[in-house]
Design brief:
Elements: E1 7-12, H1 17-26, E2 32-39, H2 47-50, E3 63-64, H3 67-73, E4 76-79, H4 86-95, E5 99-102, H5 112-119, H6 126-131, E6 133-134, H7 137-140, E7 149-151, H8 155-169, E8 179-185, H9 200-203, E9 208-209, H10 217-229, E10 238-244, E11 251-257, H11 267-277, E12 284-286, E13 304-311, E14 316-323, H12 327-341
Helix pairs in contact: 1-12, 3-4, 8-10
This protein binds NADP nicotinamide-adenine-dinucleotide phosphate.
Amino acid sequence: MSQKKTIPIAVLGASGYVGGQLLTLLANHPQVRIAAATANRQAGQRAVDIFPALGSFGNIPLSTLDPHTVAQEAEIVLSALPHGESAQVLGDIARAGARVIDLSADYRFSNPKVYASTYGHAHPCPDLAESAVYGLVEFERERIPGAHIVGVPGCYPTATLLALLPLLTGGFTKLSAGVIVDAKSGVSGAGRDAKTDNLFCEVDGGVRAYNVGRHRHQPEMRFHAERIGLAGAGQIDLFFTPQVVPMSRGILASVYVRPKDGFVVDLDLVRSHFEKTYADSPFGTVLPEGSFPNTRQVTGTNRFQVALAGGEEERRLVALCAIDNLIKGAAGQGIQCMNLMLGLPEMTALPLVGTIA
Ligand SMILES: NC(=O)c1ccc[n+]([C@@H]2O[C@H](COP(=O)([O-])OP(=O)(O)OC[C@H]3O[C@@H](n4cnc5c(N)ncnc54)[C@H](OP(=O)(O)O)[C@@H]3O)[C@@H](O)[C@H]2O)c1
């Protein structure tokens, strides 16, 4: 394979956590070069001024976003702008010819009505939203290479759907009993903007639930659980309790369902369906009986760990998943999509091995 960085790409929102994580990973990408990187209030600085860890790779000027220039300079645009700010800008860029990978929520709903009811305003480019592909690679590997716009899943939906979807596709769950999702996130999930709730003294030493049953990721989980897990042929009641825990990165999602009537719970059988589902995924690990996911073991990587619990006595099935929210939950998954769109090996530039302590 050629080791020349010949493919021009742009990173929007490069001064935020996801944008910074994109630059960090792209430093090791053998075939793409950063033709443009943008910021808002921090425009005019270089990436390394904001993220010194980038070292010599970070000598990248951050410019104010001009959609026309970006579309001219880049073949593929990786966007880490806030939701609501992305839809129109990325629509303009996509219409000008560049392919778009949106890490915000603006292109995650192929049904603009669900987008409007979740985000409280009409989508400005509903035709593009309808044609966008959901970037959950493990379930959309066939559709992503030909996509013009990819809406990369949110961090909580990534962890939740990787745990939930095999329970649905395997036909193990009693749908009328609903789905309960309990997920804990590190503080970087809220972005790099200064907010009182994210100060060290507000986060350290405690665990805080927020937006219980009201989080904007709840409709996203439900929409794609029904679309992918039930092939659009059923409805799911899903209730989500998000929590912030005192760590920088990582998500642990626990997904609770009731087994369907007549299914005598056999965790080995369920695990074998998970193993088949993720057999082609270089990043997925289905843990053996008695082992459970740990965010520490996936931190700094694009990997995800899933495990199962429950049993016949409790009439309960629980699937758990751990990811790094900034990598598999955002930047890494975006690059995984980009690799497929460029016809490159899926794993290019994506770390499999994290830190050991
Ligand atoms: N954090 C996560 O774990 C995570 C996971 C999955 C998806 N996401 C999504 O990814 C996106 C970025 O998240 P983040 O955590 O990186 O947020 P962030 O740290 O707050 O970064 C936001 C970035 O967007 C820029 N920006 C803000 N308003 C803008 C505007 N009006 N026009 C142009 N640029 C603007 C900011 O520039 P300045 O800093 O220069 O103002 C910054 O570069 C969000 O949509 C988020 O929901 C985040």
